[in-house]
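Input record, target 12 of the design panel.
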C-alpha cells in the first residue's frame, strides 16, 4: 500500500500538480510595424506555434461583408464572429493559407479594405469576446508566438515574454507600399499613410482592448532597423528570460 499522506517527491503529488501551460511570447504593435514577418521568423526559430490574431478579425470582417451583415448592428456582427469558421493551413509549397468558411481567403484578407473592416468590427466588445476562446486554443506545446494588438494585455496576460514593436507612421506606410508594389498592387503612398494613421487612431483609442504595450513589455522601435536585427533582439529577450533559444 502507498503511504498516505504522500511524502515529498511522491508520484501521487507529482500527478496532482497542474500541468504547466505552454510558454507564450506576445508581439503586439500597430499595423506595418513588422509584427507578422518577425513573429513568423521567431516562431520558426523556436519551433513554436504562431497565432496571427489580426487574421481572425480580418476573417470576421470579410465574412460579414460576404454575408451582407450590417456593420453597425453589433449583435449581428457578433453572431457572425461566432459562426465564422477560420482555418490556417500551409499549401503544398509550405506557404501559409487562411480559409474562411472553407474558402481560401488568403489574398482577400491582406487587402487594405479588409484591414479597415477588421479594425472597425474589432472595436465591438462582443466580437472580441467571441474570439477569445479560439485564440487561447492556439496555446499548445511546445509554445506559442502570438501577434496582435492585445496579446500581452488581454489575451495572454500571463505570457512569459512580451514585446511591443513600433515604427514611425511614415516608415510603416513605406513598408506597406513596397509590399503591395511587390504583389503588383499599385497604391498611392500618401493615401496609404492616411489610412495607417486612421487605423492606428481607431485601434489605440477604442474603449475595449486598445492598442498599447503591456507595462512589462520590451518596446522595440523598428524604424530604420532591418528585420533580421529585430528578430535577433526578440530572441535575445527570450534567451534573457531563461528559455533556451536554438542557434539560427
Ligand atoms: O494586424 P492586422 O493589421 O492584420 O489587424 C487587422 C485589424 O484587426 C487591426 O486594425 C485591429 C484588429 N486587431 C485587433 O483589434 N486585435 C488584435 N489582436 C489583432 C488585430
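The sequence produced for target 12 reads:
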Amino acid at each position: 500500500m502507498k503511504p498516505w499522506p504522500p511524502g515529498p517527491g511522491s508520484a501521487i503529488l507529482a500527478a496532482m500538480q497542474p500541468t504547466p501551460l505552454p510558454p507564450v511570447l506576445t508581439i503586439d504593435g500597430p499595423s506595418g510595424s513588422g509584427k507578422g514577418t518577425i513573429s513568423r521568423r521567431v516562431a520558426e526559430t523556436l519551433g513554436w506555434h504562431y497565432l496571427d490574431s489580426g487574421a481572425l478579425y480580418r476573417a470576421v470582417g470579410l465574412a460579414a461583408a460576404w454575408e451582407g451583415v450590417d456593420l453597425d448592428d453589433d449583435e449581428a456582427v457578433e453572431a457572425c464572429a461566432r459562426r465564422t469558421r477560420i482555418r490556417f493551413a500551409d499549401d503544398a509549397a509550405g506557404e501559409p493559407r487562411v480559409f474562411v468558411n472553407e474558402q481560401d481567403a488568403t489574398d482577400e484578407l491582406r487587402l487594405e479594405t479588409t484591414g479597415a473592416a477588421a479594425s472597425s468590427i474589432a472595436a465591438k466588445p462582443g466580437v472580441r469576446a467571441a474570439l477569445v476562446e479560439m485564440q487561447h486554443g492556439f496555446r499548445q506545446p511546445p509554445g506559442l508566438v502570438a501577434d496582435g494588438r492585445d496579446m500581452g494585455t488581454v489575451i495572454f496576460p500571463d505570457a512569459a515574454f512580451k514585446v511591443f514593436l513600433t515604427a514611425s507612421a511614415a516608415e510603416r506606410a513605406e513598408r506597406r507600399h513596397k509590399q503591395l508594389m511587390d504583389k503588383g498592387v499599385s497604391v498611392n503612398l500618401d493615401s496609404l499613410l492616411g489610412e495607417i494613421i486612421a487605423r492606428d487612431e481607431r485601434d489605440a483609442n477604442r474603449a475595449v482592448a486598445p492598442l498599447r504595450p503591456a507595462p512589462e513589455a520590451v518596446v522595440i522601435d523598428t524604424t530604420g532597423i532591418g528585420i533580421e536585427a529585430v528578430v535577433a533582439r526578440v530572441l535575445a529577450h527570450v534567451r534573457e528570460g531563461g528559455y533556451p533559444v536554438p542557434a539560427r
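DSSP finds eleven helices and eight strands in the chain.
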